[in-house]
Amino acid sequence: MIRFALPLVLIASPILAGEADVIAAKASNSGGNSWRVDATVQHADTGWDHYANAFEVLGPDGTVLETRVLFHPHVNEQPFTRSVTVTVPEGVTQITVRAVDSVHGHGGGETVVDLE
């Protein structure tokens, strides 16, 4: 019997990039309730089909306080840091920063930041 070995072909799939993670974040007070939030995002962007397309700043109750939309893939720039200005409600002393990707939405690693 003659057997033929078929080559294994791997097709790049957007799902292989996984979820986007916020690997670092910091907040600086800009005066009053205004804060500048710097988020460092890591994601195995594959191109326009699957990339980190935003990060969100959440209050302690999970309310989205601000969203920074990322308008293009960062295939060759990983990890990358971007900023957003957020108005934080009076009395809030901690925020959470989470990344969003175009396939999974949010769900990767997030970072909690104490506001000092």
Give a description of the structure:
This protein has a single domain, classed as Immunoglobulin-like (Sandwich), CATH 2.60.40. Mean pLDDT is 87; it is low at 6-15. It is elongated, with a radius of gyration of 18 Å. It is built from no helices and 7 strands. With 116 residues, it is mainly β. The strands form 2 sheets. A 4-stranded antiparallel sheet has the order 4-3-6-7, with no helix packed on it. A 3-stranded antiparallel sheet has the order 1-2-5, with no helix packed on it.
Keywords:
mainly beta; about 120 residues; four-stranded antiparallel sheet; Immunoglobulin-like; 7 strands; three-stranded antiparallel sheet
Topology, element by element:
Layout: E1 21-31, E2 34-42, E3 52-58, E4 64-69, E5 80-87, E6 94-101, E7 105-114
Antiparallel strand pairs: 1-2, 2-5, 3-4, 3-6, 6-7
Beta-strand content = over 45%
Number of beta-strand segments? 7
* Biggest β-sheet strands, sense, barrel: 4 strands, antiparallel
CATH topology name, in short, is Immunoglobulin-like
| Structural class based on helices, strands and sheet pairing | mainly beta
- Helical coverage, percent range: under 10%
Mean pLDDT comes to: 87
Describe, in short, the structure shown:
The protein has 116 residues and is mainly β. It contains no helices and 7 strands. A hairpin with a 5-residue loop joins strand 3 and strand 4.
